[in-house]
């Protein structure tokens, strides 16, 4: 009896058996924090008013927090988008009828732009948008449907059983042991040209960019492979770049909404 309680507690506490959790808290906060630094004065003011002083980093995990509430279950498929391998491009007619990451971002932007939308709806969709722009830059959130974006590709992370999706969501970031504000800083200032290059394009371009990166990552891992320091050394700089791109592009989207 005592033993089974202990096992249950261990399962709960370690999160074994729980669904994946996106960039993980630190990753999403990093993207929110970077976006905050690139907001226009006008966007800053409007957002601070809507969020009643809370920062983008603070609200960045709201879309994950609500997952445990049955009333919000329908937003589950909004965290990722899978393009069929036979398709070159995103085909709207074939898209998930329950929504996907691209539709989620489009919906959030539409509500924020809608003069007739309620303040409550705007607040909700702003928080969702901050999160989803982060998800868009986690390559495995634009991965293959057949392996649920890498969730079914088992690997070992140091000495622990894991999967490649989870390694990218949170395990590399957590292993680095830096706070979101430290991750948002400690980077060379982008030149205007670099900034412009990141800002270039639209939502679909960014979907394709993540999909391409996911394909490269699929090719760089073997099922059951033991990943650790070497994998971190190779990929963590790219992971940080993804967090950064997410932040800069979130700011771009928000600056366009609050022009
Ligand atoms: N999480 C759950 N299912 C997923 C999928 N098909 N792609 C990416 N992330 C997911
Ligand atoms: Zn995830
Ligand atoms: Zn998510």
What can you see in these coordinates?
The protein has 259 residues and is mostly helical. It has a single domain (27-257), classed as P1 Nuclease. The chain has twelve helices and three strands. The protein has a three-stranded mixed β-sheet with strand order 2-1-3. The protein starts with a helix and ends with a helix. Residues 5-18 have low confidence and may be disordered. Bound molecules: adenine and zinc ion (2 copies). The site of one zinc ion (ZN) has 6 residues, from helix 8.
Concise synopsis of the structure shown:
The protein is mainly alpha-helical and 259 residues long.
Give structural attributes.
259 residues; mainly alpha; P1 Nuclease; three-stranded mixed beta sheet; 12 helices; 4% strand; binds adenine; binds zinc ion
Write the layout of secondary structure elements.
Layout: H1 2-14, H2 24-37, H3 41-50, H4 56-59, H5 62-65, H6 101-113, H7 119-136, E1 154-157, E2 160-163, H8 164-176, H9 180-184, H10 192-199, H11 203-219, E3 226-227, H12 229-257
Parallel strand pairs: 1-3
Antiparallel strand pairs: 1-2
Helix pairs in contact: 2-7, 2-8, 2-12, 6-7, 7-12
Bound molecules: adenine and zinc ion (ZN) (2 copies).
Mean pLDDT comes to 93
Radius of gyration: 18 Å
Number of domains: 1
Characterize the main sheet.
Answer: 3 strands, mixed
Span of the ends, CA to CA = 61 Å
Assess the beta-strand content as a share of residues. under 5%
Which outline best applies? Answer: globular
What structural class do the secondary elements suggest?
mainly alpha
Helicity, as a percent range: 55-70%
CATH architecture: Orthogonal Bundle
Ligand inventory reads:
adenine, zinc ion
SS field, number of helical segments:
12
Corresponding CATH superfamily: P1 Nuclease
SSE pattern, N- to C-terminal? HHHHHHHEEHHHHEH
Name the poorly predicted regions: 5-18
What is the fold named in CATH at topology level? P1 Nuclease
Strands ordered across the widest β-sheet: 2-1-3
Query: How many extended strands?
Result: 3
CATH class: Mainly Alpha
């Amino acid at each position: 009896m005592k033993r089974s309680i202990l096992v249950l507690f261990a399962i709960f506490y370690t999160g074994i058996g729980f669904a994946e959790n996106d960039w993980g808290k630190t990753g999403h906060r990093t993207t929110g924090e970077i976006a905050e630094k690139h907001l226009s004065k006008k966007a800053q003011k409007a957002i601070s008013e809507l969020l009643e002083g809370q920062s983008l980093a603070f609200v960045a995990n709201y879309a994950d927090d609500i997952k445990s509430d049955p009333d919000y279950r329908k937003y589950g498929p909004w965290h990722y988008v899978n393009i069929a391998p036979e398709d070159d491009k995103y085909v709207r007619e074939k898209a998930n009828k329950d929504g996907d990451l691209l539709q989620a971002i489009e919906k959030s932007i539409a509500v924020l732009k809608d003069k007739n939308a309620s303040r409550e709806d705007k607040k909700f969709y702003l928080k969702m948008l901050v999160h989803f722009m982060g998800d868009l830059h986690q390559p495995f959130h634009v991965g293959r449907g057949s392996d649920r974006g890498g969730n079914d590709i088992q690997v070992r992370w140091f000495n622990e059983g894991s999967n490649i999706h989870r390694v990218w969501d949170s395990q590399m970031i957590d292993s680095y042991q830096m706070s979101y504000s430290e991750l948002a800083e400690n980077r060379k200032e982008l030149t205007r040209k670099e900034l412009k290059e990141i800002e270039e394009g639209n939502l679909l371009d960014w979907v394709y960019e993540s999909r391409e990166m996911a394909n490269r990552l699929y090719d760089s891992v073997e099922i059951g492979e033991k990943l650790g320091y070497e994998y971190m050394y190779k990929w963590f700089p790219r992971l940080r770049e993804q967090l950064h791109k997410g932040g800069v592009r979130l700011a771009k989207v928000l600056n366009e909404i609050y022009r």
